[in-house]
Design brief:
The chain is mainly β. It contains four helices and 26 strands. It is globular and about 65 Å long. The structure holds 2-acetamido-2-deoxy-beta-D-glucopyranose (3 copies). Keywords: Aspartyl protease, Hydrolase, Protease, Repeat, Signal.
Length: 379
């Protein structure tokens, strides 16, 4: 979800979150892992004007934890939000607002409190880091209980927790995730776990869309055949549950899938997603239906033979009605224009590494339910 921008992003709604201990005494909070935005924030009792029901008691800041608006982190936060940064007096607090594409938003104030972080050698450090205390949320489409207390912003901007870890000399400016298809997975900071020689790497491209991590533009293949669409600007966003293609590649993909459909499948309407198929019997998992579909490939122009393979299990979802649905959605419908977002469904069971030190993005297939033996790191 979640981009600090007024025209793209979604209300936090990702299936992947981490527990972090924040404050003194430290209390646990669940945070949505979001490589698509910079600011980490918690629903917050400041007091709260409008908060969702969240898994833990609301975080309560104290006055001495407020980050002043003259602080450089406040300036960079506002730079990232592309708003005019007004700071009339040095004592003034740092207010901000984040907005999401589904009309959700969060109003808050920047605070500074300690995060308990366990290092690879098991010792714990407690740096004071700046994050948002969100006290006035407007929920977009979802009105249910929020699965998380807030968002863990892992973008490349200087307000990002990742950049703050680096500033405090805790880890290198490298983060990676491995999201398991069976739920769970792991997140790591620093480069100890990174399989440098085995992963596929591309230089990070400057996304026209803020601080998004982008491997650049790619051409799209289905079943080994080019779909003949214009190069697609791709960004990777762990905060988005689904993958979104812009109108032209989406149309080309839907046409190719329909033209290639196995006789055992019939298009069916399912309340979960726009394009679904049923088989002779309801499907229990993607494994029951994956052999009926071909793989997609994104071929990145920036890298040498930099392919991101997207097998059916990385673009199909089996719903509770036993249908197989396309988990790649039409980004134009939510105003994404030319942006293509690779979300969780497509990144599952791959280790994806965002290396801001070397300015590159890498990926490698891996079973994500256990930590591979590539090394050790801060988890
Ligand atoms: C955060 O708090 C620490 C410890 O109280 C202080 O040293 C640091 O300057 C503060 N940082 C900001 C951005 O306010
Ligand atoms: C763990 O590593 C940190 C940073 O490298 C170091 O400061 C600390 O002393 C180490 N702790 C132990 C128990 O070795
Ligand atoms: C995608 O969305 C756009 C904008 O709503 C629409 O014009 C287009 O027909 C959609 N494409 C498909 C294949 O549904």
């Amino acid at each position: 979800p979640t981009h600090q921008s007024t025209d793209c992003g979604f209300w936090p709604y990702s299936l992947y979150y981490v527990a972090m201990s924040i404050g003194n005494p430290a209390k646990p909070y669940f945070l949505d892992v979001d490589t698509g935005s910079d600011l980490t924030w918690l629903q917050c009792d400041a007091p709260c004007v409008s908060c969702s029901k969240v898994p833990h008691p609301l975080y309560r800041p104290t006055k001495n934890k407020l980050v002043p608006c003259v602080d450089q982190l406040c300036t960079s936060l506002h730079g990232g939000l592309s708003k005019n940064h007004k700071c009339d007096s040095p004592k003034q607090q740092c207010d901000y607002e984040v907005k999401y594409a589904d009309q959700g938003s969060s109003l808050g104030v920047l605070v500074n409190d300690s995060f308990a972080v366990r290092l690879a050698n098991a010792s714990v450090v407690r740096p004071s880091l700046a994050f948002g205390c969100g006290y006035d949320q407007e929920v977009g489409s979802s009105t249910e209980v929020a699965p998380t207390d807030g968002v863990l912003g892992l973008g490349s901007g200087s307000i990002s927790l990742l950049s703050q870890f680096k500033q405090h000399g805790i880890t290198k400016n490298v983060v990676g995730h491995c999201l398991s298809m069976r739920g769970g997975g792991f997140l790591f900071f620093g480069d100890n776990l990174v399989p440098y020689s085995r992963a596929t790497w591309v230089p990070m491209a400057r996304s026209a869309f803020r601080n998004y991590y982008s491997p650049g533009s790619a051409s799209l293949y289905f079943g080994g055949r080019s779909l003949g669409v214009r190069p697609m600007e791709v960004v990777l966003d762990s905060g988005s549950s689904f993958t979104y293609f812009s109108a032209q590649p989406y149309q080309a993909l839907v046409t190719a899938l329909k033209g290639d459909l196995s006789k055992t499948l019939k298009e069916v309407s399912d309340p979960s997603l726009p394009l679904c198929w049923k088989g002779k019997k309801p499907f229990k998992s993607v494994l029951d239906v994956k052999k009926e579909f071909k793989s997609l490939v994104l071929n990145f122009a920036n890298g040498k033979k930099a392919l991101m393979e997207i097998p059916p299990e990385n673009y199909l979802i089996v719903t509770k009605y036993g249908n197989a649905c396309l988990g790649i959605l039409n980004g134009s419908e939510i105003g994404l224009k030319d942006l293509n977002i690779v979300g969780d469904i497509t990144m599952q069971d791959q280790m994806v590494i965002y290396d801001n030190e070397r300015g590159q993005i890498g990926w490698i297939r891996a079973p994500c339910d256990r930590i591979p033996k590539f090394g050790s790191s801060l988890l």
